[in-house]
Design a protein that fits this description.
- It catalyses: L-seryl-[protein] + ATP = O-phospho-L-seryl-[protein] + ADP + H(+); L-threonyl-[protein] + ATP = O-phospho-L-threonyl-[protein] + ADP + H(+).
- The structure is a single chain.
- By secondary structure, this protein is α+β, with helices and mostly antiparallel strands.
- It has two domains: 89 residues, Phosphorylase Kinase, domain 1, CATH 3.30.200.20; 146 residues, Transferase(Phosphotransferase) domain 1 (Transferase(Phosphotransferase), domain 1, Orthogonal Bundle).
- The protein has nine helices and eleven strands.
- A five-stranded antiparallel sheet has the order 1-2-3-5-4.
- A hairpin with a 5-residue loop joins strand 8 and strand 9.
- It starts with 16 loop residues before the first helix and ends with a helix.
C-alpha cells in the first residue's frame, strides 16, 4: 500500500503467523533473534521462520518510489524477488507482532551449511562438484549486486547446500545494505564501489575455504585469483570471477558429473557407518 508521502510500503501479511504455520524445531539463535522450522498448515510445506526483534525506533521518513517495510532485511529480500535468483533464499511472506518482525522463508531440503558440507566431505569432492558450488556462490553475489543489494555477510555459514542436487542458497540479509545514495534511512546505504569491495573480498574468503578444504590440489592460477579477491586487486567484479578459465569448465555435463560424484561420496559414507 502507499503511505501518505506517496511511497510504496510493502505491508505484512494480515493476522498471526501462528494461525498459518505450526512451529517445530529451533534452527538457530543469535543476537538477530531466532529461526524456527515450521509447517504451513494449508499445504504442509516446510518453511524457515525468523523472528527478528523490532528496533526501539522506526524511521518514518519515506522517499517516493522506494519499497519500504520498516525492516531492512524484509526490504532487501523483496528487492531480490524481481527477477528471482535461484541462488538466493526466497522470502515467502512476513508478519509483525508487538515485539518482532517475522520473516517466512523457503526451506530447502535436504541441506546443510556450506561450512558443514565441506567439513563432512573433507578432501573427497571432485573438481567438477567444487566448480559447480563456486559458480553458484559467485552468481549469488552477482545477483545481489545486480539487484542493488550488498549482502554484507557472505560466509560459509550463510550458504546452504542441497546435499542431493548441490544447489546453493545464500541466506541471512540481516547485515545487508542498499546500494545507492538515497533511502529512508541513510545508514542503510552503501556506495557501489564499497559494496563491490566488501562482496569480492567476502567471496574470496569463501572460495579459499572451499578449495583448500574440499580439494587436495588446486590450480595455481585459481589460487592467484583468490588472492586477488581477498586483497581486492584489479577491482574485480563477480562477472570477472565467472570468466576465469577454471570456472568456465563448468557446464551441464560438469554439473551432472558433480552430482554423480557427490552421490558416490554419500554412498561411501553410508556403507562405512
Amino acid at each position: 500500500m502507499k503511505t501518505a508521502s506517496g511511497s510504496w510500503r510493502i505491508g505484512p501479511s494480515p493476522g498471526s503467523v501462528h494461525l498459518k504455520y505450526h512451529m517445530l524445531d529451533d534452527l538457530g539463535k543469535g543476537s538477530y533473534g531466532f529461526v524456527k522450522l515450521a509447517i504451513r498448515i494449508s499445504d504442509h510445506r516446510k518453511v524457515a521462520i525468523k523472528f527478528a526483534p523490532k528496533p526501539e525506533t522506526e524511521d518514518k521518513d519515506y522517499l517516493p518510489g522506494y519499497l519500504y517495510s520498516g525492516n531492512s532485511e524484509v526490504d532487501l529480500m523483496n528487492m531480490m524477488k524481481e527477477p528471482h535468483s535461484p541462488h538466493i533464499i526466497e522470502l515467502l511472506e512476513w508478519f509483525e507482532d508487538q515485539d518482532n518482525v517475522i520473516l517466512v522463508m523457503e526451506y530447502p531440503e535436504p541441506c546443510e551449511t556450506l561450512y558443514g558440507f565441506i567439513k563432512h566431505n573433507n578432501g573427497r569432492l571432485e573438481h567438477s562438484a567444487v566448480r559447480m558450488i563456486i559458480v553458484q556462490i559467485v552468481q549469488a553475489a552477482k545477483d545481489c549486486i545486480d539487484h542493488g543489494v550488498c549482502h554484507g555477510d557472505i560466509h560459509s555459514g550463510n550458504i546452504l547446500v542441497n546435499t542431493t542436487s548441490l544447489n546453493i542458497k545464500l541466506i541471512d540479509f540481516g547485515c545487508g545494505l542498499r546500494i545507492g545514495e538515497e533511502y529512508p534511512n541513510p545508514e542503510m546505504t552503501i556506495s557501489q564501489r564499497t559494496a563491490l569491495k566488501i562482496t569480492i573480498q567476502s567471496v574470496g574468503h569463501v572460495l579459499s575455504e572451499v578449495v583448500n578444504l574440499a580439494l587436495t590440489s588446486v590450480p595455481e592460477e585459481f589460487q592467484e585469483l583468490i588472492s586477488w579477491c581477498e586483497h581486492y586487486e584489479r577491482q574485480l567484479r563477480p562477472r570477472d570471477i565467472l570468466m576465469h578459465p577454471w570456472l568456465r569448465k563448468h557446464s551441464v555435463s560438469d554439473t551432472e558429473e558433480g552430482k554423480t560424484e557427490q552421490a558416490k561420496s554419500r554412498g561411501h559414507e553410508r556403507s562405512s557407518q
